[in-house]
Design brief:
four-stranded antiparallel β-sheet; alpha+beta; 384 residues
Length: 384
C-alpha cells in the first residue's frame, strides 16, 4: 500500500479503505479476467461501489473531487487494488479519470450524467477517430473508437473527434454518449491488461447535443473557475500519469510478495535451496528497492497535485517522474521473471501476468519516457 507524504494530512475520501475489499474480490478472479478479456460483473460493480467513479466528480453532484488529499487517496487505492488485479485497478483509474474529464461538460451535460448520483460507470476512448459533422444543436458522429477500458460495464462512454472550424487547425473535442447510442465490439485481444476489456465502440450517425461535448484544451489547461475543485483546475499532465502507474505499483508489490514466498520454498535440482543463490537474493533486493523508489516518486507527485503551487516546472517534473517510476517497475518485474525460471512463466504464475501487465502499462501515451524527459529537460536547460 502506498503511503501519504510525511507531514501531510491524511486523505479523507475513504476510497483507500474501501479498496481493500475490492482487491480481495479482484484477486480471486484475476486469472479468470485475464482469460475472459474482461472483469467479472461483481468486480466491475465493486469498483463503482467503492467510490472510484465518484472520486473526481464535483461535490455539487455528490462526488469527492474537493476532498483534501484526493489524489493521495486515489494513488493508495489504485495500488491496493492493483496488488490483487492490475486490470481491475486500471479500470478504477479510468473511472476516476473520465469522471474528472466529464466534469468539464456544460452544467446541463453534467446534470444528465450525475443528476441522480455520482456513482456512474464511465468509459472513454480519447484519441480522435471516426467522423464528426456539425449540425444545428450539436454534432453527428460515425465510426469506430478503440481502447475503451471497461466499456462493457459503462453507462456512458466518452469519445474524441476532430472538429474543423472556418479557419485554423481542427480542434479536438470529446463527446459523451449513453450506452444505448453505440455498439461494443469485442476487439480487446492483448498481451497484457487483458481484464480491462478495452474494447471498441461503434457509432452510426449518432447525434450528440452541444451540452454533451467539451474541448480537449479545457482539460489540458484546467478549469479557470477559481470556485471549481482544485483537481479540476490543475493541468491534466500534472496528474494524468498517476491513473496508470499507480496500478502498476500495486501489481509489482503483489508479484514481489508472491515471488518471495514461492522462492523461499523452492529447491534446485541439486537439492540446494534456491534462496541460497546470491543472484536470487540480489534480484529480491533490487526488485524491492525499485518498487519502493517508484512508490516514493508517485507519492510525491500525488501529494503535490493535492497541495503544491502549480507551475510549469512542477507539471513537467511530474510527467518526468511518472515515466521514471514506470522504468523502475519494469526493472523490478523483469528481474523477478528472469529469476523465476520456466515455472514462473506458466499461465498459473501471477508473476508472468504482472510482467505482461506492467509492460503494457509502460506503452501508454502518458508514460512515454522520451517525450516526458524531453519536456522537463528543455525547461531545465532554459530552452523554453
Amino acid at each position: 500500500m502506498t503511503n501519504a507524504m510525511p507531514g501531510t494530512p491524511p486523505a479523507d475520501t475513504g476510497l483507500a479503505a474501501a479498496a481493500g475489499k475490492v482487491a480481495e474480490l479482484a484477486a480471486e478472479s484475476a486469472a479468470a479476467a485475464d482469460s475472459a478479456n474482461r472483469l467479472s460483473p461483481p468486480v466491475a460493480e465493486a469498483l463503482v461501489s467503492a467510490g472510484f467513479a465518484r472520486h473526481l466528480v464535483g461535490p455539487q453532484w455528490g462526488g469527492t473531487a474537493a476532498a483534501p488529499g484526493a489524489m493521495r487517496d486515489l494513488a493508495r487505492a489504485l495500488a491496493v487494488v492493483g496488488a490483487g488485479c492490475m486490470s481491475a485497478a486500471w479500470c478504477g483509474g479510468v473511472l476516476a479519470a473520465v469522471g474528472r474529464m466529464c466534469s468539464h461538460l456544460p452544467e446541463e451535460g453534467q446534470r444528465e450524467l450525475w443528476g441522480d448520483g455520482p456513482d456512474v460507470p464511465l468509459a472513454g476512448s480519447l484519441a480522435p477517430s471516426g467522423t464528426v459533422r456539425e449540425v444545428p444543436g450539436g454534432w453527428r458522429l460515425s465510426g469506430t473508437w478503440d481502447f475503451a477500458s471497461g466499456v462493457d460495464y459503462a453507462q456512458w462512454t466518452m469519445v474524441g473527434g476532430l472538429v474543423r472550424g472556418t479557419e485554423g487547425p481542427p480542434v479536438l473535442r470529446h463527446f459523451v454518449l449513453p450506452s444505448s447510442d453505440y455498439r461494443v465490439l469485442d476487439t480487446w485481444l492483448n498481451v497484457g491488461l487483458r481484464g480491462t476489456g478495452s474494447n471498441s465502440v461503434v457509432l452510426d450517425d449518432v447525434f450528440v447535443p452541444a451540452h454533451r461535448s467539451f474541448e480537449h484544451r479545457s482539460v489540458l489547461m484546467g478549469d479557470p473557475d477559481p470556485a471549481a475543485p482544485r483537481l479540476h483546475r490543475v493541468p491534466l499532465k500534472l496528474i494524468n500519469g498517476l491513473f496508470f502507474v499507480a496500478p502498476g505499483i500495486g501489481a509489482v508489490e503483489g508479484a514481489l510478495g508472491a515471488w518471495t514466498e514461492w522462492t523461499a520454498n523452492r529447491v534446485e535440482i541439486t537439492g540446494a535451496r534456491t534462496s541460497s543463490r546470491p543472484g536470487v537474493r540480489l534480484t529480491l533486493a533490487r526488485a524491492a528497492a525499485g518498487l519502493d523508489a517508484a512508490r516514493l516518486i508517485v507519492d510525491r507527485a500525488a501529494a503535490e497535485a493535492d497541495d503544491a503551487e502549480v507551475t510549469p516546472a512542477l507539471t513537467l517534473r511530474a510527467t518526468r517522474d511518472y515515466s521514471t517510476a514506470v522504468d523502475l517497475l519494469l526493472d523490478s518485474v523483469n528481474g523477478l521473471l528472469r529469476m523465476s525460471g520456466a515455472r514462473g512463466q506458466a499461465q498459473s504464475s501471477p508473476v508472468q501476468r504482472v510482467w505482461r501487465d506492467v509492460h503494457c502499462m509502460a506503452g501508454h501515451a502518458a508514460l512515454q519516457p522520451d517525450v516526458n524527459a524531453d519536456g522537463w529537460a528543455k525547461h531545465a536547460l532554459g530552452e523554453e
